[in-house]
Amino acid sequence: MSSILVINAGSSSVKYQLIDPQTEARLASGLIERIGEPEGRLVHRGGDGREEERRVRVADHTAAFAQMVEAFARAGTPVAELGIAAVGHRVVQGGSVFAAPTRIDDVVAEQILEMGALAPLHNPGQHQAIVAARALFPDVPHVAVFDTAFHQTMPQAAYSYAIDTRVAERYGIRRYGFHGTSHQVVSRRAAEFLGRPVESLRQIVLHLGNGASACAIEAGRSVDTSMGFTPLEGLVMGTRSGDLDPSVLLHLLREGSSIDDLDRLLNHESGLVGFTGTGDFRDVRTAADAGDAAAALAIEVYVHRIRRYLGAYLVELGGADAIVFTAGVGENNAAVRAEVCAGLEWFGIRIDPARNASGAGGARRISSDDSRVDVLVVPTDEEAEIARQTRGLVG
Ligand code: ADP
Q1: Where does Mg(2+) bind (predicted)?
Q2: Which CATH number is 3-146 given?
Q3: Do domains 3-146 and 196-382 have the same CATH topology?
Q4: Distance 334 CA to ligand 1 centre (A)
Q5: Residue 362 annotated as binding?
Q6: Known binder of ligand: residue 8?
Q7: CATH 3.30.420.40 fits 196-382, yes or no
Q8: Where are the beta strands (DSSP E) in 270-382?
């Protein structure tokens, strides 16, 4: 049996899933975190559901992969017997260079590293994982699947910032968009659910997880998205601010903040955390329900921002056939879905409260039968999509 190993690495963590590309079944999965710290953690889950958790000391990404290999062996199947046919790597930033999944050779690996200038929080760790994984599995193809690739179809009007063109070109400053793998798989699955070709649909996908972004999709192609130069622009997120007047940064710099202060503020101390101290939407909702005014305001701003993008994308697309909620909050929080869609009957958007409240899993419709726009919940599965694209490239 052949399987595809999907790697999602960060600067201090490696997540992996072994996926049967035919059935998308998870044959195993795991996580190694706190790489480079005195004490790290490994969790390995076998296909039989048995889980092993242990403390490990992991110096770097190469050591992390060695730990993964040992975990597979302890779970009963040495890596050599897993039938790994290819390795798919999630890469956050592909710049304007990569518009499709790409087989990794030395040159591509180097380009991914160079793009770390645009994505310093992501690409360097992913590059280290690519180097380590290629050394460990030298005989199988490795494929990079980029978060930005799906958005390379955006028209120039949508991806350009209105700054001095010479500065923009010199520094690669434009909107790239992220979460592309999720927007792509979710929009395709929504079309399958509706039983219509994706080419015939105008969709607005709302990916609401810890990170959050909206995407306007026409005929299966991204035409606009809320994340921009980095995953910081757009919606309110767990710890990120989303949209902000850039003058706020200039003001804080003049008032004495350092660049690192601002990075921390915008990426880690803003969004839901900024309002409430917690970035987990469930906790914010619980606090709001208990009468916490800061938590209630956090949700109001969160929803207000989503609706602003929803309105923009309804105009850009000239209407919509489907609005699709996905990721942790989008799939699980009926109240947010109701709040986002409230009062939009004029646009042909009507939620059915009972359908919206149903906890059923899988893709489902939450709009009423007389809603002109189909409002759907469609679970995202980025790893399965990375496996699918990897297999599609290497055959
Ligand atoms: P990531 O972007 O890390 O993949 P997820 O898509 O898992 O994140 O989304 C995480 C968010 O989803 C958290 O804010 C979490 O509170 C929220 N979430 C997860 N499950 C539920 C639930 N049952 N109800 C409400 N929110 C949920």
Answers
A1: 8, 382
A2: 3.30.420.40
A3: yes
A4: 12
A5: no
A6: yes
A7: yes
A8: 322-326, 364-365, 374-377
